[in-house]
Amino acid sequence: MTDRSDPFEELAALFLTGSDAPAPTRAASQPLIELIVVGCLPVRASLWLVPYADTVARELGPTALVRLDEAQPTLQLLRAPPEIASRRWPTLADAIADLGRHIGTWLVRPAYDVTPDQMIRTQTDRVTILTSVNDSAIVKAYQEIKLLSEAAKQGVTFPTLGVAVLGADHETAGRFHEHLRHTTASFLSYELSLAACVPRVDAAVGSAGRVTFPAEPYPSLDELMSWLRAAQPPPAAVAEETRHEEPEPAPVEAAARRTVKLAPKPRIELESKPPSGTREPDKQGAAVLLAGWVDDVLPLETRSPGHERLEIAVDPAGRLHVLAHEQDMRGLSVVAAWAVAHAELIARAFPDRWIDPTANPVLHVFTDRPASLADLHGSDLRLHVLAPVDVDGRRGWYHAPLNADVR
Q1: Which of 139, 203, 126, 217 lies closest to 176, judged by CA?
Q2: Quick one: DSSP state of residue 40?
Q3: Domain containing 103 — which CATH number?
Q4: C-beta neighbour count of 19 within 10 angstroms
Q5: H or E element in which residue 355 lies
Q6: Tell me: the pLDDT tens digits for 13-31?
Q7: pTM for this structure?
Q8: Which of 26, 157, 356, 395 has the fewest beta carbons closer than 10 A?
C-alpha cells in the first residue's frame, strides 16, 4: 500500500487514476441487463456511476448506462464506437431499439421510489449494490440485500447478486466482500459476488455519448425492461453474425471473469438426531420454538451454520440465549461462541432489538427425561423439562424449569 504523508496528495489520489485501457470488442450474444442499487458511497454517489459503468465496459465492451433517477431519462454510452456514440434519437425507446445489436451490457439505475419487490420482479440478470467500505456502508448493504431477499420469497427467481466496492483498494475491497458474503450466506443463504472494485474516480473517464429525453414521458422500470428485452437480437441474427466473426466470449461469460469465483452455495446439513418416542410440540403442524417456553425471550431468525436446530434468542436486557434439545446440547458451546463472535452483526441484522455484544449468552437445555440431566444441576446451564402429557386421547405439553435462573 502506498504511504501518503501529504493529506492533499491523498485527497487528489482519490479522484485521479492512471492511463486508459482499450475496451474489448462486443460479443455477439444476448446482452446482460443489470440493475444498480446505490448504497453508502464516498463523496457524491452520482459521481461513481460512470466510473463503475466504465469498469464494466472495460471487461464487456460497449455498455449503456440508463438513469431513471434524474429529472429526465438519461442514456450514457461507455466505450462505444464513435459512429454509435454520435447518434441521436427522439425517444429513449428509439435509442434502445437502435442500440440493441451494439450494446453488450445495459446498466439501469432505477428511480428512487422503486421498491426491492419491483426490482426483483423485473427478472433482471443481476443486481449490483454500489458501496464503500465503512461501517455505515456494510449495514446499508446488508439491509439492501435483506430487502431484496425478502422480496424474492414471493416465489420470484432471485437474480445474481453482487457488490461493487468503490473508493477502496483491491485488498480492502476483498476483505469487505468476504465479511459481507459470510454474513449474507449465514443469515440469508445467498451467495454474494464481488462484481467490481473501483479504487478511485478516473478524471479521464467519461461517457462517449450522453443523451437526455426531456420530451418523453418518464417510463416505468417495467416499461424500460420490456424495451431492453425487445431490443435483444433474435437467435437467427446472432447465429448469422457469429458465422462471420471469430467466436468471442459472451457478455455473461465475461461477467463471470469479472467477478470473484463463487464457492458452491452453502448446504444445510442437519446433525443426526436419534429416534425419539415423543414428538416435539407443534401448533397446527408447525414446530413450536423452544424460545416460546421461556419468559421474556424473543427468538431471532438466525442460526449458526452447521447447527441449525439450535435456536438463538434475546431478552429485554440485550443478552443472547442459545436453546437446544438434550440430544443437541453438545452444540451449545459452539453456537454460543459463534453468537459472541458475530454479536455486532446480529445486532445490525435485527436493528429493532437491542443486543449487548459484551454479555455472555445464556444456555438452555430441554429434555423429556429430567433424570438424565441430574448431574448438570450445578452447572451454568438452564435446564427445562418439556414432555408430552396425554389426557383422554389428546396430547398436550408440560414445561417447567429444573434449576434456578442463571444470571
Answers
A1: 139
A2: S
A3: 3.40.50
A4: 6
A5: none
A6: 443 444 344 444 434 457 8
A7: 0.54
A8: 157
